[in-house]
Automatic annotation (TrEMBL):
<dbReference type="Pfam" id="PF00378">
    <property type="entry name" value="ECH_1"/>
</dbReference>
<dbReference type="InterPro" id="IPR001753">
    <property type="entry name" value="Enoyl-CoA_hydra/iso"/>
</dbReference>
<keyword id="KW-0456">Lyase</keyword>
<dbReference type="InterPro" id="IPR018376">
    <property type="entry name" value="Enoyl-CoA_hyd/isom_CS"/>
</dbReference>
<dbReference type="InterPro" id="IPR014748">
    <property type="entry name" value="Enoyl-CoA_hydra_C"/>
</dbReference>
<dbReference type="InterPro" id="IPR029045">
    <property type="entry name" value="ClpP/crotonase-like_dom_sf"/>
</dbReference>
<protein>
    <submittedName>
        <fullName>Enoyl-CoA hydratase/isomerase family protein</fullName>
    </submittedName>
</protein>
<comment type="similarity">
    <text>Belongs to the enoyl-CoA hydratase/isomerase family.</text>
</comment>
Length: 259
């Protein structure tokens, strides 16, 4: 069986590589299962503070495995397929460690949806990002219709979803969908450099910051501010807070232990 996913630990960053280059890293049930297991392993590893997801070969991912989808004979099979895969997306989005998608070549369909479930995105110039499901007679089924309009102006997201036409990395960066542009061949290196900045943070503050931003967006402002205040109060009682102030006074990076 071909390896569909590789995990490498590089200092405090885990690099997950979708590894089906012959099929442009199309994501099937096997990939999703391996990704879920990899996320569980990384979550349990306190030495890992950030996650980078990238693709082998000439693409990030061309989306859900159309060969596998074509093999389905009942709507229930597709519903189960999407359900299993989108469950993994929820794991990724609620992951307590920040994630960066290193995107190149193509991020289409479920591939873009995977990148949207990451916290940050780095894309090489010339990368094409799109949700072509409409051209297949289906819809983005792993969060694309919900996450894209939360990251792009809704009218731009609607145009991408209803036309199925991709945009390039330069336009995605100008619109704020991509955090950093990289030169051709440089997405992974740029993403790892961004992840290294994230790993300098205190683990509890990183997890709480992600949660506050993600959940706060869906709350009314007054409740969200109260949520922030409570969270800040809890973090004030951590050893990491004491270490952070001590490190500042001693002009050195904080040595945070997540306690
Ligand atoms: C941690 C959490 C992660 C959890 C798992 C993530 C789940 C993701 C899945 C979500 C579930 C479904 C919901 C989703 O919204 C539905 C979809 O994604 S539908 C698929 C959408 N994608 C597409 O329509 C893109 C299809 N591909 C293309 O248009 C073109 O290949 C391309 C990308 C424009 C590139 O074109 P070319 O450069 O010409 O390359 P080829 O077309 O010749 O392709 C090369 C080779 O790859 C095979 N291939 C390409 N795309 C797919 C694919 N999606 N599935 C399977 N195989 C694919 C292609 O057949 C060629 O293979 P060969 O014929 O040479 O054997």
């Amino acid at each position: 069986m071909n390896t569909v996913l590789r995990t490498e630990l590089r200092d405090r960053t885990a690099v997950l590589t979708l590894d089906r280059p012959g099929q442009l890293n199309a994501i099937g049930s096997e990939t999703a299962s391996r990704l879920k297991q990899a996320l569980a392993d990384i979550r349990a590893n306190d030495d890992v503070r950030a996650l980078v997801i990238t693709g082998a070969g000439r693409a990030f991912s061309a989306g859900a495995d159309l060969g596998e989808i074509e093999s389905f004979t009942t709507p229930g099979q597709f519903r189960d397929f999407v359900g299993r895969l989108t469950e993994a997306f929820a794991l990724l989005e609620d992951f307590p460690k920040p994630s960066v998608a290193a995107v190149h070549g193509f991020a289409f369909g479920g591939g873009l949806e995977l990148a949207l479930a990451c916290d940050l995105r780095v894309a090489e110039r010339g990368t094409r990002l799109g949700l072509p499901e409409m051209k297949l007679g289906v819809l983005p089924g792993a969060g694309g219709t919900q996450r894209l309009p939360r990251l792009l102006p809704p009218a731009i997201a609607k145009q991408m979803i209803l036309t199925g036409e991709p945009i390039d990395a330069e336009r995605a960066h100008a619109l704020g969908l991509v955090n950093e542009l990289a030169e051709p061949g440089g997405a992974l290196k740029t993403a790892e450099a961004l992840a290294a900045k994230l790993t300098a943070g205190a683990p509890l503050a990183l997890a709480a910051g992600k949660r506050l931003i993600d959940y706060g967006l869906g709350m009314d402002l007054e409740a969200a501010i109260a949520y922030e205040r409570e969270t800040v109060a809890v973090l004030f009682c951590t050893e990491d807070r004491t270490e952070g102030l001590k490190a500042f006074r001693e002009r050195r990076p904080g040595d945070f232990r997540g306690v």
